[in-house]
Every structure is written in structure tokens, then in C-alpha cells.
Amino acid sequence: MANTDNSSLERYSIITEKNPREITLLRGNGCKWLKCRFCNYHLDRCLDEEQNFILNKEVLDKVSGIYAKLEVINSGSFVDLDAKTMNYIITKCVEKNISEIHFECHYMHKDKVADLRKLFAGNGIDVKIKIGVETFDSLFREAYLVKGIDTDSPVEIAKYFDEVCLLQGIPGQTSESMINDIETGLKYFERVCVNIMVDNGMPIRPDPRVIKNFIENVYPLYINNNRVDILLNNTDFGVG
Questions:
Q1: How many folded domains does the chain comprise?
Q2: pTM of the model
């Protein structure tokens, strides 16, 4: 069902470290995949497009253009946002002299990316697209996480996407596998965002031993890497 109780969600923040930018958590009509065994973000959705636009406009009106960069997330893909919201995003980018915008997208919508880039390029705005790959071990990703990415090739994924999110701290991962995922991400993508699993009531739960392993053996290797964001909690960007 649609989730219309948004009182506990922070929807605007400013990221000052590594890749400084403003970030907004908007609301769309919901992720279309809905099969990931670790994710409950899709609960932040509403089928009423007018109500979504009212909420999203209020959030977007907080954007100042301080860094000329904006990240827009919406607990799904950019295709889940209504047309009025998308048009208003462009309006705010032009108004605030934002030259670079980041969106998120599931692999199933990859063929929509080119049109989005063209739409924003027409307004002088460079688009960066982030995908949640979670891991480049395709068997683990699809059999265990049920992510819905039908290729095992990072090169193929990178044809459409600029940035990649990884999920770490879950059962079955080792320091070697986590490092390999980050290194693969750095090789083929502009930026890597590592999300440490938190318990959200979904079937896949965080593994404290794996998280301890990450903190001791992986975290120190990348904490100062300007191309790697590490979220030990899923609200570390200030939204959520």
C-alpha cells in the first residue's frame, strides 16, 4: 500500500565532505522491481501524483545551489517521479545554477537513461546516474539478494551508469570479497558508495561479524578515498 506518513523522514541535507553536494529525498509512485530481499525503501511511495508533487516541491524549494551539484533520490528510480516534479527539478537547477545532478535508477530502466541525459543536457546540466549493484558477484547478487540485474559484466553496467552502490556487512561476505567489489567499482565507475547493512525487518539481516571485519580490514583502506562514500548508517547523508 502507499505510504503517506512522512513525518519521520528527513528529505533535505547538505553533504560537505568528499563530493560536496545538496541531496534531496523525494517521493515517487514506487519502485517497480520490489523483489530485493534486503530493501524496504520502496515503502516510501504514494500513487497520488499531485500529493507527491506538493511534497517534492516543498523539499526542492530548500535547494540553494551552494555547490552547483544536486543529488536526487526517491527510494526507487528517477522514472518513478511524476512529470511535474521532474520539470520542477529542471526549473530549480536552472534557477540555482546547478550544473551537475545525480539520480538513482534500477537496471531494469537502463534504456531510459539516455533520454534523461538528453533532457538535462538541453538545459546545460550534466547527469550522473547511480545504480545499486550491491555486489559484482552475480550469482550471490541474484540468487541471494534477488537484485534483478541480468548481466555479470561490470563493463555492460557501466555503459549506462556512472556511479555504483554496494551493500556490505551481510552474511557470506569476506574482507576479500568486499575489497574486490570496491576495487571493481573504482575500476569501471566514477564513484562508489558503500552501504553497510542495517536491520530493517527484511529477510536478509546484517551480520555483526562481517561488519566488524569491514570496520577493521576494509574501512581503513577507503575512508580517505575521495571517490568512495561509506555509509555506516543509512542516514549518514542526512536524509532518510
A1: 1
A2: 0.91
What's 137's domain CATH number? 3.20.20.70
Residue 108 lies in a domain: yes
Name, in order, each residue with C-beta under 8 angstroms of 123's C-beta and a sequence gap of 6 or more.
Answer: 90, 93, 94
DSSP per-residue string spanning 157-211: HHTT-SEEEEEES-TT--HHHHHHHHHHHHHHSSEEEEEE----SSSS---HHHH
Q: What is the pLDDT of residues 60-71, one digit of tens each?
A: 999 999 999 999
| Alpha helix stretches (DSSP H) within 40-125 | 49-60, 83-95, 113-121
Provide the domain limits for residue 28: 12-231
Is 4 among the domain residues? no
pLDDT in tens, 120-162: 999 999 999 999 999 999 999 999 999 999 999 999 999 999 9
